[in-house]
């Protein structure tokens, strides 16, 4: 594997002006969507069972053998324009063996190749397993939707199937905060994501303050994805979501980078409240809106089967396997021929928009044909 010859953009710092996960970056560079990002599901084990878990139905208590790491590394090696990788679960660090034998080698590969890396973790386990990632990792992505340990207990174990003691949840909550502070001090970039849903929409300013106190460098905000465990939860009306975002923008610390993603507001919705909000988001300092990478510049690879999906939520069946196809070819097939992609694969460059996330479109815009629309507010 010749990794020393790859082009690198590692010298560019990840800031509000440069977000290599945003598909608009590669779309502008190549003039078409290109596979620049690969997400890998490294485990289906997790020490929590959150109420809203978008991969909840895939979680297990015991899991099978993974396919050899060399197969995955080879297939990453064949992705011509790889810029970012993401490692996800379950809780990726649940087993120490996964950290040592899968995660660290993947991060080492990425670093050597000049590819940016992210891991999605709940950060509730012992510090040592996260500390091992420090020399290689670009972004530690955590979920934070709580105003106290009580919220954490209620939300984080809602789907456990058995009662989890308050004391146990409390210890994990404070461990997560302590880990976040320690890792930040040690130089790790921690991005805490909060979802906007029926529980959090009126508490976002408090959640934001805690994220600040945890030492995080970025606060990400996304609507809840109505997938898996979250499928039956109440859908927040768009009006409440707009109000929640305005209240957060009013109360936020303007020095902390805020990244909004998979928003259900589009520049083709016409003048009105959406346009007002989009303008505000564009004008606020240190605020960015990321286009959704899933299926635009990214695919998800399941490391147990080699199956390739458009998202780790797996609501859409796999459309290829790394054992018998190159990832670039699987992606091209999705891009050009998959009927689901044809529904949302729009692009209005002046608005910096490349269409809605599939789940968000399904939640809020069931009968809208985005391909026939154009941005009218900028
Ligand atoms: S890219 Fe699609 S969703 Fe975005 S403004 Fe244009 S038509 Fe609307």
Automatic annotation (TrEMBL):
PANTHER family listed in its UniProt record: 7-CARBOXY-7-DEAZAGUANINE SYNTHASE, PROTEIN YFKA-RELATED
Organism: Paenibacillus vini
Pfam families with a match to the protein in the record: Radical_SAM, YfkB
Record-given protein name: Radical SAM core domain-containing protein
Superkingdom, taxonomy of origin: Bacteria
UniProtKB keywords: 4Fe-4S, Iron, Iron-sulfur, Metal-binding, S-adenosyl-L-methionine
Residues spanning the membrane: none
All residue ranges annotated as the Radical SAM core domain in the record: 30-259
PROSITE patterns: RADICAL_SAM
CDD domains: Radical_SAM (cd01335)
